[in-house]
Amino acid sequence: MTTSAATSHATATTGQRPIESRPKMVVAERDRAMAHGGRFRDFLLASPQFSVYNSPVQFRWNGWNLNHIEKHGMTPADAEFIAEHARRPYPEMIGDGKRYVAGQTADGRYGQVIYILDSDRTIFVIHARPLDPSEKRKFRRRTR
């Protein structure tokens, strides 16, 4: 198989660009992870920006954030499930130490969660609500 045929085959079967055409930073990170005997996905999930994936994850709840998410029709279990089961490209940094995650609850409803990761690595949810139809479409496009 020629290089161009191999490239088009890789793109057609995985839907992703071949490694050689990805940004050099991503390739360098992949190579560094592979040199340490790990997988690239494990390397990404263990990096600080994806710290929600490091276990164990603790959530900090108080009267304020419980009341706030209940006003939007969400439960603590919904918010925790969305945050714990985030898929790339989430969590997304949105400023002031806040992280945004969109996803599905355990029963399949779509929602968003905004939280702060405290210094003791607990998650303090400051906002959670269901996604509207246009946000659902955007979420589905981003996580394909």
Describe this structure in words.
The protein has 144 residues and is of the alpha+beta class. The chain folds into 2 domains: 44 residues, no CATH class; 88 residues, Nuclear Transport Factor 2, Chain: A. It is 41% helix and 22% strand. It has a 5-stranded mixed β-sheet. Strand 3 and strand 4 form a beta hairpin. 15% of the residues are buried.
Keywords:
144 residues, alpha+beta, Nuclear Transport Factor 2, Chain: A, 2 domains, five-stranded mixed β-sheet, 6 helices, 22% strand, globular
How many structural domains?
2
Strand element count: 5
CATH architecture of the largest domain: Roll
Question: Which bin fits the share of residues in helices?
Answer: 40-55%
Oligomer: single chain
| CATH third-tier fold name of the largest domain | Nuclear Transport Factor 2, Chain: A
Determine and state the CATH class of the largest domain.
Alpha Beta
Note the main sheet. Answer: 5 strands, mixed
Tally of helical runs = 6
What is the H/E order? HHHEHHEEEEH
| Computed structural class | alpha+beta
What radius of gyration results from the CA coordinates? 18 Å
